[in-house]
Write a structure and sequence with these properties.
Layout lengths: L7 H10 L18 E4 L4 H10 L3 H9 L3 E5 L1 H6 E5 L15 E6 L10 E5 L8 E5 L4 E5 L4 E6 L2 E7 L2 E4 L10 H15 L1
Parallel strand pairs: 1-2, 2-10, 3-4
Antiparallel strand pairs: 4-7, 5-6, 8-9, 9-10
Length: 194
């Protein structure tokens, strides 16, 4: 669990409830021996600066490169994408990312903080709708050929997967539904067994 900023405590509770062993990651050494990492929601610009400060960009890429599974929610999803639209002006309109998900993400695609909402999403493979909380949520406005759209809202992809990368524009950790956390754990377990 990337524990620099954002909703990492809520993710940890859900992951532990579905049987995962969870470790907080704040330094590169914390990634040693991990098979997966959740990049939580929060504020993507702040998270990016903290990744700089703690030297975590390359170690996270290396985790993925050696077979690790990554899941980014909201801000975490932004940091996984290859292209980001809507970066703050002080960053010259550019925002650094891990570039591990072939997608273009539009920051705040569903509005500002006051426009936050909860809705039910149809998710590929789920028998019933998933409750999803959208807070200054991004949308995937372009997805590459290898990116599978698992759910969309108003025609905009909001849950995608590409190999060992899962990304959700919303906050599943703020609901009682743990199905996405179970899906992430299954992805990690399957990768470990390979």
């Amino acid at each position: 669990m990337l524990a620099l900023q954002g909703a990492f405590r809520e993710h940890r509770r859900h992951l532990e409830a579905v049987g995962a062993r969870v470790r907080d990651v704040r330094l590169p050494v914390d990634l040693d021996g991990l098979d997966g990492l959740v990049l939580p929601g929060g504020e993507s610009t702040t998270m990016g600066r903290l990744l700089d400060a703690f030297g975590l960009w390359e170690p996270i890429r290396n985790l993925h490169g050696r077979g690790g599974v990554l899941w980014g929610t909201c801000a975490g999803a932004i940091l996984l994408a290859t292209d980001i639209l809507g970066a703050p002006p002080q960053d010259d309109g550019r925002q650094r990312s891990l570039g591990l998900l072939d997608a273009t993400v539009q920051r705040n695609a569903f509005g500002r903080q006051v426009d936050s909402f909860t809705t039910a999403l149809e998710v590929e493979g789920f028998e019933s709708p998933l409750e999803a909380v959208f807070i200054r949520a991004p949308a995937f406005v372009r997805t590459g050929a290898g990116v599978q759209v698992l759910s969309a809202l108003a025609g905009q992809p909001v849950l995608v997967q590409s190999g060992r990368v899962l990304a959700s524009a919303f906050h599943p950790e703020l609901t009682v539904d743990r199905r996405l956390h179970m899906q992430f754990l299954r992805m990690v377990t399957q990768q470990v067994m390979v």
